[in-house]
């Protein structure tokens, strides 16, 4: 059960934060409010009237709009087309495109949300796409706007801006439900906070509640928000990336002349907004994508041209960013997933057969050691929660001696409890002298784990800075602005982009 | 907005696109130079140095465009070569498509000069034959456009053709009315479409598999009924009236174009009008916007209140009507009676036209005309006893589709949700 007797009241003009971990049931609740899911029990009351929402149509008619976590925009349509869709104005049987454009511009001006109505969605950055989503809801005259994890894809500056827009909307009398798991944002904007845990409302709090207290409410026990770690003692150079160029699937340069070194016993964190080449960089290191130029060396051994299997076996561990696509085989059991990289080698098997006894024995051990919450090692991975699936991946990768550990978005979609655990394992790996490369779009995570932070923007490393660098400065770097740090390794002045 | 946000607003724009020497234009150029060489040298050498006559009338007499066959083959071959050279040199990038079309046209003309040298090719007959052969392809491809733009792959065009052809012959004969035939052809197409729609949309069965099964089903059902019903008593069941030809006075007197376009049967007009209707429908109407949205990103359409499944049903069924009507062409226009498996793969050529035409109505029209021309030429070549086996020309649609799908001629991009059933989460 994703929602168990939840009560939620939102007042007019209120910014109501819905706080909860991944999988707590926030999105499920909102999808019911938006008519995408039907409740088994309970009722929805809008302006004193009981309503049933069979589809989003009903919700829209009742004045409810939603900005989904994954944008609901047709990539090959223009902004105006996307906004008109579903509420098209027709003149003489044909779409009234001029009116659609005008409406977009009107709303865009009234609420300070700049967009080009004729731009194709696929050519717009995520920040602009989000503005389109908000305008889409506003043109439908909503009284209640639901924002589902809207800041997950934004830079700190874009987040600031979004919070400003939200304030403006609430001043204009719109109610906002703001779904998030980020405590700082909640405290910055919310008028009231409802905390949800395991499908139940656990508390309604005011925004002056301490962060630690909110976190404890969210998780159900006291949690440490900081990662405990001793200063790093970097050893020899393990990973050396030089002059690396990598193209993405469309043949566009995604990684542009990147130089990096990671030493034994240190964590290098790569910060940056998603889609700035981090994925391609990691794929190139793991042999999943052929670099266009440059070299990747581990202990002076060139990895370029080696197969992923060879790379993994040479003592490199890898947590891929998309768990369900690359991390686990969901239909396989936990035990099977734990030996995906070792199944053809003793003690688990050889080229011809598996040794189920050895596989099961090692699985029992790993499940214990990595605190994987599963009914049995023989349960399929699809029955596990996101956090426990991720622990399976981490357990598998950390079960062999490593020289280098590459973790991409290691805690995406993972509950706070598991995040703590995974972070501790990563730091432990550093302590035993492994070189660790962590890529994350969560700035908190990079700052917490890394001994040095490389900020990646448009395929380049703009700067490598210590983790105590002010947030503001990191945020600017993530947005490609380097003026504040002259000579920090930027190869291209950011103002040039700003004028485009 | 602040300066900061404008800077971030560009962040996902591509990082300096790499300049590749062997880009699409140059690859196309190489291809064109190669076929230009074939035309100039091979066709030029093989062509007889006799006059090739392209006549405006039905026979060898009367007004004609004439050229020495060998000279023509070489001349047009050189034109193709030159067009290829332009592309290869990276010139005239803005007119890339035009230069490419010109080059391919020159290659075709060079081929014709070789083949027609010492003989004659009636232009009007070729043009109207091309158009008539293209009619079922146009209708079939349009049916595909409707389905696939809304996200349902329709591999069952062949089966819809067969059911349409069969229905037209059966009901047309029994009611002694062409129009009753056409209507029941549409019904036949809708029957197949309905099964496809229910299995694909409601029961989420793999759409390609369903399509193939439906083709076999249509083949079996019509084949069985043909043997049991039509063959024993053809007069009662398999002698539909032929579709009448209409002539628009005035317009029909324009040379070449007149007799081709304005002295012909209703299905030709229907097909051509539908191309425009579907095009404007898709691009300019509420239905079209929603159809495209449903085919590209059904969840997005659903969240703004578009009925995804309903729209898919509607489009697949409409496609059934159109493809069924296309099937009527085979019995009411082309032959005058139904025969077992008489469509012999035309539905797959229509599918090829759909892909070659990049899922657009006008693209489909162009592709269908091109394939129709190839078929017409194949009959002409075997009639004049050409050394080129007509099978080569019959392979052309499939060859062209492979080339198109391989991405050599522009980027072929199917609707993003094509073939994916929509499951509400």
Automatic annotation (TrEMBL), chain A:
Keywords carried by this UniProt record: ATP-binding, Nucleotide-binding
Gene3D superfamilies: P-loop containing nucleotide triphosphate hydrolases (3.40.50.300)
Residue ranges of domain ABC transporter in the record: 1-223, 239-483
CDD domains named in the record: ABC_Carb_Monos_I, ABC_Carb_Monos_II
SMART domains reported for this sequence: AAA
GO molecular function: ATP binding; ATP hydrolysis activity
UniProt-listed InterPro entries: AAA+_ATPase (IPR003593), ABC_carbohydrate_import_ATPase (IPR050107), ABC_transporter-like_ATP-bd (IPR003439), ABC_transporter-like_CS (IPR017871), P-loop_NTPase (IPR027417)
The protein's name in its UniProt record: Nucleoside ABC transporter ATP-binding protein
Highest classification ranks of the organism: Bacteria, Bacillati, Actinomycetota, Actinomycetes, Micromonosporales
UniProtKB/TrEMBL annotation, chain B:
Domain of life the protein comes from: Bacteria
Pfam families: BPD_transp_2 (PF02653)
Keywords assigned: Cell membrane, Membrane, Transmembrane, Transmembrane helix
Record localization: Cell membrane
InterPro entries listed in its UniProt record: ABC_transp_permease
An example molecular function term from Gene Ontology annotations: transmembrane transporter activity
Membrane topology: Multi-pass membrane protein
GO CC annotations, alphabetized: plasma membrane
Entry keyword Glycoprotein: no
Transmembrane intervals: 28-49, 69-91, 98-117, 129-146, 153-172, 178-201, 208-226, 260-282, 313-334, 346-371, 392-412
Chief subcellular location: membrane
Protein known as: Nucleoside ABC transporter membrane protein
